[in-house]
Design goal:
Length: 134
């Protein structure tokens, strides 16, 4: 089934100059870029995106990091895009991410894990509406 998913190339990747390499991983896998923008976000916007994590211990440093510099939200589409993007990304913790995944190759640790991606059709719909008004 063709799906849409929301990906964020995080500020660590943009700052390191690796955004193009990360984008190439998705394109080489046959996913289509539907929307994409370089932008900076406020803490209030980060709170909306990460609404389910606001009370978690890891959230304050994540909020700080996501507002520290430019990031790139994008909408990707394709067959089973949500699961395929998550497989390309690898485990949330870059130290546990499988070799050859985006987080293993470009992430560090904690919030600095290179990318975010929607984890379900419901979160994809919510995140696409939040980031791109569509
Ligand atoms: P992301 O996909 O952006 O969604 C939540 C983020 O919180 C996650 O990637 C990580 O960067 C960060 N994070 C840090 N610690 C944890 C944790 N224990 N569980 C989930 N996410 C964590």
């Amino acid at each position: 089934m063709s799906e849409h998913t929301l990906v964020i190339i995080k500020p660590d990747v943009v700052e390191a100059g690796n955004a193009g390499k990360v984008l190439a991983r998705y394109e080489e896998a046959g996913l289509t870029i539907e929307s994409m923008e370089l932008r900076e976000i406020t803490g209030e916007f980060a709170d909306q995106h990460y609404a389910e994590h606001l009370e978690r211990d890891f959230y304050p440093p994540l909020r700080e990091f996501m507002t520290s510099g430019p990031l790139i939200p994008l909408i990707l589409s394709g067959e089973d895009a949500i699961a395929r993007v998550r497989a390309l990304n690898g485990a949330t913790d870059p130290k546990k991410a499988e070799a050859g995944t985006i987080r293993a190759d470009f992430g560090e640790s904690g919030p600095r894990n290179a990318v975010h991606a929607s984890d379900s059709p419901e979160s994809a719909a919510r995140e696409i509406a939040l980031w791109f008004n569509r």
